[in-house]
Recover the amino acids of this structure.
């Protein structure tokens, strides 16, 4: 599926970020801020069905009271895409942990230059089209991008 808004920065969101954003004790947690950036349309957050399923499973097991907040976040912030077919994973073998390979492949397929996750080591050595960042680093990148836009074409 092509991006819904090609001019907006697309970010693929991993399950651990969705989990953390759903249970954030304050509005200032980096995972929740990433999701809020998507909610106000500064970025387009993308997740695959595998990511959603994993986040739901972990929340149901560990913090079931957070499931309503999770569902609300998903409905407001995410574009959900299908998981890659097993045959589509072959070009990505060895680029990520086998369990996370479909997530990396989905991020590449969706044209997401950034994959936000706390588990960057699971996506090593990675794919050249996708940079894996923790939520705090993604927020810094978005700030830098906004600052460069505000500076205008002369860079002032």
């Amino acid at each position: 599926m092509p991006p819904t808004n090609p001019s907006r920065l697309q970010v693929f969101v991993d399950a651990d970020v969705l989990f953390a954003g759903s249970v954030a004790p304050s509005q200032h947690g980096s995972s929740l801020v990433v999701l809020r950036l998507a909610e106000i349309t500064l970025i387009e957050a993308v997740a695959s069905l595998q990511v959603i399923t994993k986040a739901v499973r972990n929340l149901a097991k560990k913090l079931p009271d957070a499931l309503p907040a999770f569902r609300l976040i998903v409905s407001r912030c995410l574009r959900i895409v299908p998981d890659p077919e097993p045959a589509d994973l072959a070009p990505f073998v060895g680029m990520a942990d086998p369990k996370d390979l479909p997530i990396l492949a989905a991020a590449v397929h969706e044209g997401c230059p950034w994959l936000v996750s706390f588990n960057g080591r699971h996506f090593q050595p990675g794919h050249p089209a996708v940079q894996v960042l923790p939520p705090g680093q993604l927020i810094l990148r978005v700030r830098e991008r906004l600052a460069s836009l505000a500076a205008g074409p002369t860079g002032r």
